[in-house]
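pls design
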């Protein structure tokens, strides 16, 4: 947590009020304080010279971000419009889209940290002078910018850069417990993430271990999971074992002094989640769940539309995943191992729903149908609904009996709506003998098309918002090496399990409402 003192030359200005009301702690890891601060954010609304700004920063004796229309940027500010902010150094993260004004800081002193791309030109909009301790920011003049989580996270990274000089930290040595498809995905992300280093891979399959060694030359492999627990050259373990083992593995590894990343779901019961969180607190180690669907382009686009108030209040949401197909013949379809159909996909989708529709969930109702695929134990078709305390509702359906697909997303708001349509993608390639080979992908393998519907009948397609490759793992490295907060927390994943556990209890009671733990 970075401790920040807010200052303004006009406490009644809208921008000063926006700074005070910004959701700092929930989205950016910043604590607003009145004394013993690490840094200052100084809002200037009246025109000020650079000499006066530098004198004020010197007098405060703390690294200071100066923002607002009063800073002496070059020329008049542009009209408010969507701009793309591009960081110039690695620890400031990805590009950020905001609706704001732009003024160039070409005459200000210091290193250019962030630019805004305007008319195919990157204009400097954040500069940092480590000699004076001054960071000048000519974006963020629109009060609405400070309500946007990506912008606040950028500000937090800037504060971290200002207050904590870069150190040559040793990389975090990672062990993978399980090397199936998702384990290989982790290995690929680790290979491209500065600060992470794959040290050990454990799997029961010698064939999969051979793949791991080929993909990461020099990596040590084992079939003995106890070797992972005892390994002195492993700081962090990614657990990709079946869900019914997640809780116990988390406690075992945390008690052994390891940081832990769990695959989803976090566990199959809230009690297991709570025990794992307590173990993390006891060991002073990180526990987090790989909620990778947070970084899907359709979800990120919808979250941006909601943050920008394009829908008004979202009071009804439906999410659907499925097809008409036989379930897989693996543990995913074994209810005792996976938790059931709702747990298997719901660990992704309920997490997305709770991010898009925050607030208190009063009760959960659910139904499970077993009608066709009797050789597996998961439900063939399952539905759960979150009933919020204020009357809003969100429903998730998973089905292996859906000959007709529902939209991936349907959101209704007081100012607009969203439909996410499935795509039917085909991959065409040549066979070894030169003939054409066509593979039809499952709908869930492609990001859906997102359409924004206005109350006046206008419909516009919204482009997906792709995250940079390995975004979760980059945040993971930042968290362990420099204390930066992650956008995913164990408590959020515990809440997902609470909703799923309540849904299974409701289904067992013929759909009776259940209060989630």
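designed seq:
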């Amino acid at each position: 947590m970075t401790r920040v003192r807010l200052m303004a030359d006009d406490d009644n200005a809208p921008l000063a009020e926006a700074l005070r009301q910004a959701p700092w702690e929930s989205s950016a890891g910043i604590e607003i304080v009145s004394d013993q601060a690490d840094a200052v954010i100084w809002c200037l609304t009246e025109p000020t010279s650079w000499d006066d700004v530098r004198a004020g920063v010197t007098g405060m004796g703390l690294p200071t971000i100066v923002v607002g229309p009063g800073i002496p940027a070059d020329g008049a500010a542009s009209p408010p419009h969507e701009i793309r902010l591009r960081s110039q150094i690695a620890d400031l993260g990805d590009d950020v889209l905001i609706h704001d004004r732009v003024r160039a800081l070409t005459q200000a002193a210091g290193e250019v940290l962030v630019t805004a791309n305007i008319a195919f030109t990157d204009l400097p909009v954040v500069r940092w002078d480590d000699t004076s301790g001054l960071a000048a920011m000519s974006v963020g003049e629109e009060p609405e910018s400070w309500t946007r989580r990506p912008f606040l996270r950028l500000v937090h990274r800037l504060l971290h850069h200002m207050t904590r000089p870069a150190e040559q930290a040793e990389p975090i040595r990672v062990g993978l417990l399980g090397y199936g498809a998702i384990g290989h995905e982790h290995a690929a992300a680790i290979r491209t993430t500065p600060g992470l280093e794959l040290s050990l891979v454990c799997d029961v399959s010698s064939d999969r271990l051979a793949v791991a060694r080929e993909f990461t030359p020099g990596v040590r492999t084992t079939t003995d999971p106890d070797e992972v627990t005892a390994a002195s050259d492993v700081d962090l373990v990614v657990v990709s074992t079946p869900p019914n083992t997640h809780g116990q593995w988390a406690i075992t590894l945390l008690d052994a002094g390891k940081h832990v990343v769990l695959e989803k779901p976090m566990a199959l019961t809230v009690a297991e989640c709570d025990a794992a969180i307590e173990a993390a607190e006891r060991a002073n180690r990180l526990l987090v769940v790989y909620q990778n669907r947070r970084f899907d382009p359709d979800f990120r686009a919808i979250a941006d539309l909601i943050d920008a108030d394009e829908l008004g209040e979202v009071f009804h949401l439906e999410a659907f995943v499925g097809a008409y197909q036989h379930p897989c013949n693996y543990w995913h379809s074994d209810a005792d191992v996976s938790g059931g159909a709702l747990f298997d996909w719901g660990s992704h989708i309920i997490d997305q729903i709770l991010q898009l529709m925050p607030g208190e969930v009063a009760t959960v109702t659910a139904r499970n149908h077993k009608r066709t695929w009797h050789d597996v134990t998961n439900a063939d078709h399952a539905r759960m609904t979150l009933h919020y305390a204020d009357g809003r509702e969100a429903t998730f359906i998973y089905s292996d009996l859906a000959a007709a697909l529902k939209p991936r997303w349907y959101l209704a708001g007081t100012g607009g709506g969203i439909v996410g349509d499935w795509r039917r993608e085909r991959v065409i390639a040549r066979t070894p003998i030169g003939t054409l080979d066509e593979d039809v992908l499952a709908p869930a393998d492609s990001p859906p098309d997102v359409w924004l519907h206005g109350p006046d009948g206008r419909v516009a397609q919204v482009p997906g918002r792709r995250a940079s490759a390995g975004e979760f793992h980059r945040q993971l490295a930042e968290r362990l090496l420099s204390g930066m907060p992650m956008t995913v927390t164990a408590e959020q994943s515990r809440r997902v399990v609470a909703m799923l556990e309540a849904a299974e209890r409701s289904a067992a009671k013929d759909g009776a409402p259940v209060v989630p733990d």
